[in-house]
Write a structure and sequence with these properties.
With about 650 residues, the protein is α/β, with parallel strands linked by helices. Among the domains are: about 180 residues, ABC transporter type 1, transmembrane domain (ABC transporter transmembrane region fold, Up-down Bundle); about 240 residues, Rossmann fold. It is about 60% helix and about 10% strand. The protein contains 20 helices and twelve strands. Strands 8-9-10-5-11-12 form a six-stranded mixed sheet, sandwiched between helices. Helix 2 packs antiparallel against helix 9 and helix 3 packs antiparallel against helix 5. The protein is elongated and about 120 Å long. Its main location: membrane. One of its GO terms (cellular component) is plasma membrane. It is a multi-pass membrane protein.
Length: about 650
């Protein structure tokens, strides 16, 4: 996979993009066995010592095995001459035991090495997938990415722990057996070589097909994981719409595709294995017949024939291991292609986008509170906790979302962001959180362009509570303390009180140590929202982003949260996506977005008289100063 770097220092792949069905479309590249072996060998970097020891032990075990036919030859010859054979039998037994013990140790070292390679790959994949650019999560399905960490790495474990060493040791052992067979009877060896060559031609013709079928199978398995994860994540919706059978049928089609590819792989493998076995067995029969005739004709001894037959039978294991290793390596390349593609996806840069600027310059002191500032008396960008200057952005360059957004948020100021659905409010949050970079314009934190800061430095300044409050599997304490794992009990209790969570904790059987289930399934929507608020406050940000924070709250809890927001505004700046009257009317400053542009800004009363769009929003959502909405909560969709 090739890549390019844009002016901001962000790396983007330039290879073919992933098709809509989730399967990766990459170039085939060099599919030769030599290239595949070289690739698998590179994976073992850092484990070469273990491989060397295991290879030596395996070769020693093989040498002990190769010595056994020679001892057997002497046993037969000595028995024919009436000599004592028990010392030779004892030696034969000792060779057998030593071979088993040495081979066992070598195999253990290889298995451990294989697990180490898989561990290293999984660490790399997990770290990579958690740091991908946000655009990549829209281009790749989550379940398929997870499959690359689990299923694909498991396939590679067998390749690196067995196939590489089997290929080397099998080749050397086969070569040793062939040398000894040539020493015993060159004519019989030529007959064996002819049958083995025929088997090699058959195996070589099957390898490309095995790799292609394996790649299709791995892609299908990844698609199964992606489709199943999608269905399980939306299970309530699936059941309410009675779509279980439809989803099962869709996933079943993926299962059938994996089955078909697996059957094709098995079909090709089933042809390859008998070809090898028939070649070796055919060699054995030819040697038995021709060698027997030669012994009867006194062209060789019976001991020589026994030894040659044993070596011919010993060729079965090393040759089978060589051919099996080659096939396994080709199957492993299908899994490795998917892993390599994931490791090549672009991640967020850790350095500032503007080179040569220190990311951790001390922040300027926060100015005094500015709740009295109006539209005409806003702080300059250099004085603000956050400022946007003519920011433009589009997820698709051909379809801009923000077309020129400018506003400031002073320290300890409550700013509301309003507008119709699709106006760009949530996109503003995504840019402030630095999930994406503006196509034009500037985002500033404490008067400094975000491009001069690392993403980590920017995110240390902020906390986010979005509309879909994220609660992960674990205890309530784990979720509240997610951003500050070492928070004290007093700090956790403080944010619990601010978020009005005391009653929730009291209701749960284990209190703070209650497991809240997958996606916080044991909590209501409003309770999950308050958990997210508590988690954000625990980090003590200088800027708190709230995406419609009262959307899941009843009137009582909404009133409580408004009080929390007033308290929080004394500690940090607030930028709130708002529709409800209670959120808007208490804001120090309101910014109106329309069609990706800032069209008006000011206080609630000022905008009612000075902005036609705001008056329209107020009329449609019953935003009136000093009262509750006539229809209830007055919530609207966020953009």
């Amino acid at each position: 996979m090739t890549a390019t770097t844009d002016p901001h220092g962000t790396t983007h792949p330039t290879g073919p993009t992933e098709p809509h069905d989730g399967r990766a479309a990459v170039a085939d590249g060099d599919r030769s066995t030599r290239a595949a072996v070289a690739t698998m060998y590179r994976l073992t970097a850092g484990h070469r010592g273990a491989i060397a020891v295991a290879t030596v032990l395996t070769l020693v075990a093989s040498a002990l095995g190769l010595a056994q036919p020679l001892v057997a030859k002497h046993v037969v010859d000595a028995s024919g001459r009436g000599q004592v054979i028990w010392p030779l039998l004892a030696l034969l037994g000792a060779l057998f035991v030593a071979e088993a013990a040495t081979g066992s140790v070598g195999r253990f070292l290889l298995e451990r090495m294989g697990e180490g390679v898989v561990r290293q790959l999984r660490h790399g994949l997990v770290g990579r997938l958690l740091r991908l650019e946000m655009r990549e999560y829209g281009r790749h399905r989550g379940g398929d990415l997870i499959s690359r960490v689990t299923t694909d790495t498991t396939v590679l474990r067998e390749v690196v722990s067995q196939a590489l060493v089997d290929l080397v040791t099998g080749s050397l052992v086969a070569a040793g057996a062939i040398v000894l067979m040539a020493w015993l009877d060159p004519l019989l060896l030529l007959l064996v070589a002819g049958t083995v060559a025929a088997a090699s031609v058959v195996v070589a013709s099957l390898l490309t097909g095995i790799r292609c079928a394996s790649e299709r199978m791995q892609d299908s398995v990844g698609a199964i994981a992606a489709d199943l994860a999608r269905a399980l994540d939306a299970l309530p919706m699936v059941r309410v719409h009675r779509a279980e059978e439809r989803e099962a049928a869709g996933i079943g089609a993926r299962v059938e595709a994996a089955y078909g590819a697996g059957v094709r792989t098995a079909k090709l493998a089933s042809v390859m294995s008998p070809a090898v076995e028939l070649a070796v067995q055919g060699s054995f029969l030819i040697v038995l017949v021709v060698g027997g005739l030669r012994v009867n004709g006194h062209a060789g001894s019976l001991g020589d024939l026994v030894a040659f037959l044993l070596y011919a039978s010993y060729l079965v294991l090393p040759l089978s291991s060589v051919f099996r290793a080659v096939g396994l390596i080709q199957r492993g390349m299908g899994a490795y292609r998917r892993i390599e593609e994931a490791l090549g996806l672009p991640v967020e840069p850790s350095a500032p986008l503007v080179p040569g600027v220190h990311a951790h310059t001390p922040q300027p002191a926060r100015p005094s509170a500015t709740p009295e500032q109006s539209a005409s008396d806003q702080p300059t960008p250099e004085q603000a906790a956050l400022a946007l200057r003519d920011v433009r952005f589009g997820y698709d360059p051909e379809r801009p979302v923000l077309r020129g957004v400018s506003f400031t948020v002073a320290h300890r100021q409550h700013v509301a962001l309003v507008g119709r659905s699709g106006a760009g409010k949530s996109t503003v949050f995504a840019l402030v959180a630095r999930f994406y970079e503006p196509d034009a314009g500037t985002v500033l934190f404490d008067g400094r362009p975000a491009t001069e800061l690392t993403r980590d430095a920017c995110r240390r300044r902020i906390a986010v509570v979005d509309q879909n409050a994220h609660v992960v599997h674990g205890t309530l304490r784990d979720n509240i303390a997610y951003a500050v794992p070492d928070a004290t009990e007093a700090e956790i209790r403080r944010v619990m009180e601010l978020a009005r969570l005391e009653e929730v904790v009291a209701r749960l059987p284990g209190g703070l140590d209650t497991v809240v289930g997958e996606h916080g399934s044991t909590l209501s929507g409003g309770e999950r929202q308050r958990v997210a608020v508590a988690r954000a406050l625990l980090a003590r940000p200088s800027l708190l982003l709230l995406d419609e924070p009262t959307s899941h709250l009843d009137a009582i809890n909404e009133s409580a949260l408004i009080g929390v927001m007033k308290d929080v505004a004394q500690e940090c700046a607030l930028l709130v996506i708002a529709h409800r009257l209670s959120t808007v009317q208490h804001a120090d400053h309101i910014v109106v977005l329309h069609d990706g542009r800032t069209t008006a800004a000011g206080r609630h009363e000022e905008l009612l008289t000075g902005s036609a769009l705001y008056r329209e929003l107020a009329a449609s959502q019953m935003l009136r100063p000093g009262g509750v909405t006539a229809s209830g909560d007055g919530a609207g969709a966020t953009g």
